[in-house]
Prior knowledge:
By secondary structure, chain A is mainly α. Chain A is 66% helix and 6% strand. The first copy, chain A, has eight helices and two strands. A two-stranded antiparallel ribbon of chain A has the order 1-2. The radius of gyration of chain A is 22 Å and the shape is globular. The relative contact order of chain A is 0.08. The structure holds a DNA duplex.
Amino acid sequence: MQDGRGASMRGAGSADPKPAQAGAGLLFLREDEIRVAQDLLFFAYRDFTNAADVILDELGLGRAHHRALHYIGRNPGITVSDLLAILRITKQSLARVLSVLVERGLVAQAPGTDDRRQRLLSLTTDGKALERRLFDRQRERLTAAYREAGAAAVDGFRRVMRGIMDNTARAYMDGAEQARP
Amino acid sequence: MQDGRGASMRGAGSADPKPAQAGAGLLFLREDEIRVAQDLLFFAYRDFTNAADVILDELGLGRAHHRALHYIGRNPGITVSDLLAILRITKQSLARVLSVLVERGLVAQAPGTDDRRQRLLSLTTDGKALERRLFDRQRERLTAAYREAGAAAVDGFRRVMRGIMDNTARAYMDGAEQARP
DNA sequence: CAAATACGTCAACAATGCTGCCGCAACGGC
DNA sequence: GCCGTTGCGGCAGCATTGTTGACGTATTTG
């Protein structure tokens, strides 16, 4: 694999330092830092979500079901609208997933007390058990990563991730911290 | 459009502090830390990838095309096999995406010199330009997050993300660092 | 009562993943 | 030079998960 630029496999720019780049050294480093972060997000997210796939496949469920279980578990009694706002998918995409979860007895629904049009969603005992199994798989990966990296790194991780998401998501997470004493 | 933040958005949960949790304080904290990380990964990944979607939509391309452009750009002269190994999708999924990129003149192919069966992939001038537009959108988000969080946090972020991905992905990234002095 | 809201549902479609199978050109060992 | 393996292309078909748009129904609210 000869790529014209000399470097093997990794092309862009080592032997050919983009002569016209102003302030080259620093700018190039910053750009490459960002590109590394793109890779980090792609690989980490992929491998993290993959961790639960074995269990999901056995049950004929998908990641969408896992996400629903996760956010219902974290917000028992949540309404469909609020869940839609968190997941940012359409009503139909969610309905498809929810109907399966309800059929299988993983999610329970209760009419709203204030507003009886609402369906308040929560996990059944089975739902909680499944969510826990899925959670445990992902936890393995995360605790390993946390342990290796150390507490300070974890704090940095959290800060950067928080910064990447948009304001709405940040607000949700702030609410979550607040509401979970 | 119902924006669905009318009610608390946080469900009923917090009034019921799981009384039977053994060793409650510490265990619960650790578990909740992991659950927060699940949220972080979901929201950050979603909003980060969304950043490029406007441009992609205009061109009728998807995220899969973006990923291909990204990894070809980072590895000019890469073979189809190597690209498959990075993306971990099937040949057919990649072929579908690649054929579009080649048709539109965004990706160029050259027969391998060692092994003429190979197609060595690289970005054309147009491909580089598009990749850069997409990159710039994501860069905005990341640099903002990096700036807010600070250099130490960024280092922690990298360490944790590296720990989450699997060995193969880590090895790829190490190769990348190594080859980019 | 009328309008707005929360939700369900149907039909159709798109993007991206998958499997399995076949074919061809090129490489490499014998 | 032959033959097995490899790198790649292509077809057919299918699953998951997302989308839009429209319509129905129960319920709340002005």
